[in-house]
Amino acid sequence: MDFNSSKDQQQKRGFSLFGNYNLNEGVGDIPVHSSAGTNALSPFLNFDPQVLNPGGSQFILPEGQKEKRGRLELMFFTIGGSVIAGSVIGSASGLYRGIRETKDLAGPVRTSTIINYVARQGATTASAMGSIALIYSLVGTGLSWVRDVDDELNTVASAGLTGLLYRSTSGWKGALRGSLYGLGISSLYVLVASKERLHPYA
Q1: Which residues contact 159 (CB under 8 A, 6 or more apart)?
Q2: φ and ψ at residue 165, rounded to 5 degrees
Q3: Tens of pLDDT, residues 84-98
Q4: Banded pLDDT at 145 (limits 50, 70, 90)
Q5: DSSP state of 35
Q6: Cβ atoms of residues 31 and 15 within 8 Å
Q7: d(CA 24, CA 146)
């Protein structure tokens, strides 16, 4: 008996959770089930998910959790995103203004002045947009808790109250103007983002 040949054949066989296989065999020949005659797919997984949840979503949610994230969960993302967006917009505006206002300067003096414009305008715009996002998120969360529903009405009302509160230090005319801006922007957003949900009311 050739023991060396038998030993080489044993070394050429690999091991997997589904049984041993020969390393010289093609990938298509590797078994995907533990023994002959058994199905590759577990019978516990071979079912239609719509049987358990007809007409519902195709994913599993923890008990008590809604399919849509609430305003409290989205608050930090909204505030952080607004601050970052305000910083970018303000920096770009400051760069443009700095280049335009320093045409008569040259060298390090102009460079330093432009950097000051960018830093000051970026910080100012980021602070303003962050404050607006904070007020909007707090008002929206409060309305959701009071009404026990999160819908498009909360979005429009939150934006209107945010503009009113943010511009309240500018007098009643400024506060009213800010509220109208908030109502207008939020209404356009709702019409674009919730077109399908508002279609039956059209």
Answers
A1: 136, 182, 183, 185, 186
A2: -70, -40
A3: 999 999 999 999 999
A4: confident
A5: S
A6: no
A7: 69
Residue identified by tokens 């715009």 is 125
Cβ–Cβ under 8 Å, residues 126 and 152: no
Q: Is the confidence at residue 21, as pLDDT, over 50?
A: no
For residue 127 the two structure tokens come to 């602070």
Query: Can you give the pLDDT at residue 69?
Result: 64
End-to-end CA distance of the chain: 88
Q: Which of 75-79, 125-129, 130-134 has the lowest mean pLDDT?
A: 75-79
Q: Provide the 10 A C-beta neighbour count for residue 154.
A: 20
With H, G, I as helix, E, B as strand and everything else as coil, classify residue 61: coil
The values of phi and psi at residue 44, to 5°, are -75, -20
Residue written as token pair 């305008």: 121
**Backbone phi, then psi, for 194, in 5-degree steps?**
-115, 40
Please name which of 154, 9, 11, 127 lies closest in space to residue 70, comparing C-alpha atoms.
154
Q: Count the neighbouring beta carbons within 10 Å of the beta carbon of residue 95.
A: 16
3-state class (DSSP) for residue 21: strand
Q: Which residues of 25-52 are buried (b: 16+ CB within 10 A; e: fewer)?
A: eeeeeeeeeeeeeeeeeeeeeeeeeeee
Within its chain, how far is the Cα of 21 from the centroid?
A: 45
| DSSP conformation letters of 68-81 | S--HHHHHHHHHHH
Instruction: Tell me the sheet residues that pair with 20.
Output: 15
